[in-house]
């Protein structure tokens, strides 16, 4: 697994660098040891965090309730926990999005 993704007992932990107020929602590339994701939502009132949760839930094919920001709620650098039984599927989806950029 890449350094931006870690296997945990309850699922997968992602280290993300968020770019709010972007033109569209997508994986942009890498930012050091983090996956860089742009989102159109503004960083106001938790809108960008909610958009990130929805985006990653769709990529992981899980309900948004199984995705949560565990660190960096008010920072662009975030750690997100995704409760999934299929980490390989999530890895494939994110690396495909990374390759398609």
Verbal overview:
- It is a single chain.
- The chain has helices spanning 47-60, 87-99; strands at residues 5-8, 11-19, 26-31, 34-38, 67-71, 77-82.
- It is of the alpha+beta class and 101 residues long.
- The chain has one domain (5-99): YggU-like (Conserved Hypothetical Protein Mth637, Chain: A, 2-Layer Sandwich).
- Strands 1, 2, 3, 4, 5 and 6 form a 6-stranded mixed β-sheet that branches.
- The longest helix is centred in the middle third of the chain and has 14 residues, at 47-60.
- The radius of gyration is 12 Å and the shape is globular.
Total of domains: 1
What percentage of residues falls in helices of 4 or more residues? 25-40%
Write the CATH homologous superfamily.
YggU-like
Please tell me the overall pLDDT: 92
What's the overall geometry?
globular
Please identify the top-level CATH class: Alpha Beta
Classification by helices and strands = alpha+beta
- The Rg value, from CA coordinates, equals 12 Å
What would you say the CATH architecture is?
2-Layer Sandwich
* Main β-sheet description: 6 strands, mixed
Order of helices and strands: EEEEHEEH
CATH topology: Conserved Hypothetical Protein Mth637, Chain: A
Q: How much of the polypeptide forms β-strand, as a percent range?
A: 25-35%
- Ranges with pLDDT <50 over ≥5 residues? none
| Number of helices, where a helix is a run of at least 4 consecutive DSSP H or I residues | 2
- Cα(first) to Cα(last) distance is 20 Å
The count of strands amounts to 6
Write the layout of secondary structure elements.
Blueprint: E1 5-8, E2 11-19, E3 26-31, E4 34-38, H1 47-60, E5 67-71, E6 77-82, H2 87-99
Parallel strand pairs: 2-4
Antiparallel strand pairs: 1-2, 2-6, 3-4, 5-6
């Amino acid at each position: 697994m890449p350094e931006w993704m870690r296997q945990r007992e309850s699922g997968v932990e992602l280290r993300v660098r968020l770019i709010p107020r972007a033109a569209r929602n997508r994986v942009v590339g890498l930012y050091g040891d983090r996956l860089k994701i742009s989102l159109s939502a503004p960083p106001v009132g938790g809108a960008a965090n909610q958009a990130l949760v929805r985006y990653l839930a769709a990529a992981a094919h899980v309900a948004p309730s199984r995705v949560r920001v565990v660190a960096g709620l008010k920072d662009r650098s975030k750690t997100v926990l995704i409760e999934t039984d299929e980490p390989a599927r999530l890895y494939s989806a994110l690396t495909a999005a990374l390759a398609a950029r």
